[in-house]
Amino acid sequence: MLADIWTVFWRDWTVLKHRMTAFILSRMVAPMLYLIAFGWGLGRNIQPTGGGSYIDFLVPGILALNSMNISFNSVTPVHAERVYHKSIEEYIIAPIRPFAYVVGKVLAAVLRGMISSAIIITLAYAFGAHFTITPLFLLVLILNCAVFAGIGFAAAMYLGTYEQMGQVNTYILLPMSFLCGTFFSTRALPDALRVAIECLPLTHTSYLLRGIGSGAEVSMISVAVLAAYLVAVLFISGKAFVNLRK
Amino acid sequence: MIEIRNLRKTFPHKDAQNKNAEKVAVDGLSLTIETGEIFGLLGPNGAGKTTTIRMLTMLTRPTEGEILYDGKRVGDDDDALAIKQMIGVVPQNLNFDQDLTVGENLELHARLYHMSKAERESRIAELLEYVELSGVVNDGVRRLSGGMKRRLLIARALIHHPEILFLDEPTVALDPQVRWRIWELVHRLANDGATVLITTHYIEEAEELCDRVAIMNKGKLIAVDTPKNFISRLGRFVVEWRDDAKRDFRLFDTREDASRFIGTLDTAASIRETNLEDVFIELTGRKEGL
Ligand SMILES: Nc1ncnc2c1ncn2[C@@H]1O[C@H](COP(=O)(O)OP(=O)(O)O)[C@@H](O)[C@H]1O
Ligand SMILES: [Mg+2]
Predict the structure, then answer these.
(1) Mean pLDDT for all residues in chain A
(2) Using a 6 Å cutoff on CB, does residue B46 contact ligand 1?
(3) Which tens digit of pLDDT belongs to each residue from B207-223?
(4) How far apart are CA B283 and CA B216, in angstroms?
(5) Is the complex ipTM higher than 0.95?
(6) pLDDT per position as a tens digit, A113-128
(7) B82 contact residues in A (CB cutoff 8 A)
(8) Does A219 touch chain B (CB under 8 A)?
(9) What is the distance in angstroms between the Cα of B129 and the nearest Cα belonging to chain A?
(10) B99/A15 touch (CB, cutoff 8 Å), yes or no
(11) Is the pTM of this model over 0.95?
């Protein structure tokens, strides 16, 4: 099982190695813009309620939304492998357990998410942000990557067209990027919306990263919520992969 | 030994009248394929050959019926992993990993079948040599020509020394020399004890390669026999003639019977020995223009 997970991971790692520089450069664009526009530009005039500067408030939010986007989109090529190239059939025929495929893909997406997170952390320090990185901070980031990689995997299994994969980005990930406690506190939202938003995994990640980064006490319940999301999406993804054998 | 019992596969097939209509792809197929034989599955397009192979290789779940490998039923359990380990598949469609090179595609396969680094390296080099692709090992698969892709597909299926090999129309669009090489390879594998199941619509391929042939049409098995028996059963001689620009033919047991029949015709006709193609057309129904 471990060897099979490694095989699946090895494949994604091989592809990533071919394009490492391009991957890193392209992943720097969006966070740079966020940091410049919201951190330097707008942020100068914003005073967060909890004290500190806006850029310190912002960086954990950017880490959360960026790792979500990167991990989700690392898995979207699986859609083409299923629908167009059919290369996924190599794995269905092979003597490996379905779960090894899912876990290998998710781990590869976590790697990409963590590489791009490292880039943002470096940029953020360069922009003068203050936050501390602890093992729990990294664990939360990894959990966040894994949850959204799992969601990306399930989407790649269930959605029919590549266009629909794009719609998940536009109608689900993009709104979450802005609303889940990333750029502003969810307290600013109307109650009904706020409750819904606070159930989403990205909101838990934003608050956890911000809390841990500033040295505050954080709720372990949020960590448990992320872990529960992960178990659920891995289960759904595993089922979906098995059901490819129609 | 592979036993196929009453295998059936239907696909949902919505049409204007009936939302729950079904398309029957394979319809009550029963077959036994002996260890070490080269078995041919022959049939026109849409006969259900690919669907049968997909069920045998666990890509598709049968709607009904069962498949046994050496007495072990195919399911989702551990046995299936053991069965999968000994199967090699050359699919009808090219399904390479488009983001990997030729060599990496082969390495991925070798890793999926649990080969050690040393085994992988020597086996991949050996097969690339055999299918004459050593020179493109570092090229992306997208850059290969159609024939090169087919050869790579076959090399990939053989990496882990499968005991059972499924080939779904493996020589489509290949040059005659390459086709010969592949036939030679299949013979060699069978001599080494492998079981081979090959689908084809090149009749000469089946005639050249197969110990036994099953003829399928519209999802149903029509007949199974050796190519020789098919011919002697249906008649070793063919009388061919043209009727209003349409070709027609009839099979006879002896040359004398055939000659006598020609005497009764009022058009020019010829006699020749029966080949598998005649058998195929006789059994799957004559098409317009034949
Ligand atoms: N995934 C599928 N969905 C719907 N119909 C299918 C599917 N696969 C095959 N069929 C149908 O089943 C029949 C048999 O197809 P196939 O097994 O590919 O035949 P062959 O390989 O002998 O040409 C065809 O009529 C085909 O259209
Ligand atoms: Mg076919």
Answers:
(1) 92
(2) yes
(3) 889 999 999 999 999 99
(4) 9
(5) no
(6) 999 999 999 989 988 8
(7) 95
(8) no
(9) 23
(10) yes
(11) no
